[in-house]
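User: For a benchmark we're assembling, each entry needs the component sequences followed by a predicted structure for the full assembly. Here are entry 17's components. Please fill in the structure.
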Amino acid sequence: MEKNFMLTDEQLWDYADGFLEADEKQQIDAHLRQHPAQQARLDAILAEKRAFATVPLEKPNSDFAKQVMAAWVAEQNPVKASVPAKAKGQDWVLWGIAAVMLAMLFVPLWLAPSAAPTDLSLQIPEEYMPQLQVPAFDWQGLFGSAWLRILVLITMAFMSLKILDKYLQVRTLSLQGH
Amino acid sequence: MSAAITDETLIQQALAGRQAAFATLLNRYERYAFTLAFRLVKNREDAHEVAQDAFLRAFRYLPDFRGEAKFSTWLYKIVYSTSLNFLRKQNPDIQSLDDETRPIKIKDEGSVDASHAMEQLDRNAALQQAIGQLSSDDAAIITLFYLYEHTLEEICQITNLTMSNAKTKLCRARQRLKTIVENKYASELV
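Assistant: Structure for entry 17:
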């Protein structure tokens, strides 16, 4: 049998890759001991195999790990993650609008003549009483102003759009399964 | 420090909520996962997307990891299936990653041996380039077996191939790789 035993490349690769059964391996070992040329073929295959194993790994971008971790943290904290940094930065718009609306509510009250204490004149002598000139406020003119009406309408439209935007953000996140 | 900690310990720590354990697992396997994804999708940008998606899936389903296989095998299975899904989205007609029609040139009697060819070239660069020219399936199986030193059984777990299929594919991929290297050497000699 030994005379007719021909080693193919595939058998040598199977030998090198460790795919052979014990008896097949022993048979090839014996053959290789007697045939240095076949042993040289095997050595070449083993060198090739080593070369396959030393191909360098590809390198991802330097911020790859950071991006994955950021995505992972965001996935674990959907509430925090649902407020994008951009939107956080725009909070001052909402606060500004709220302040303007509050001012529109309270400034007229503060300016209203009815807010002035009426019984103060009873306790303070007349000569010390400052000659207060309560400004007469033209409420009719203010609320009749077309500019104010437009401003109020624009503000309300803007607030409605912001509320709609927030609703859509929350809806999108809930659809994504957060 | 992280090299001393086993994957199993890191997984337990990650499951207990330690973000640092996730980060260590990520740092340990990012190049392997990225390389496998790159071999499969053949594009760096897409490989980043696939590898990131695979890591997030792995972290998400870490509680389901039973430890029956190595963590790396489990992770590469996710990378492999994520890459396959990505390629199917790109090309819905794709059935298999394997290019059955690609001819295999069996070495002629007088052809230059690939190992000798590689001695003449920058071996690593030549091989890396040659692997890049293989089909996705061939590149993946060569990478998993020779570079990551996974066994055929583990490759079967990753790719869902049968043992005989995996062995046949490995043999064919190796022949194709040799052909590419030999052709490259021949063309550089001309």
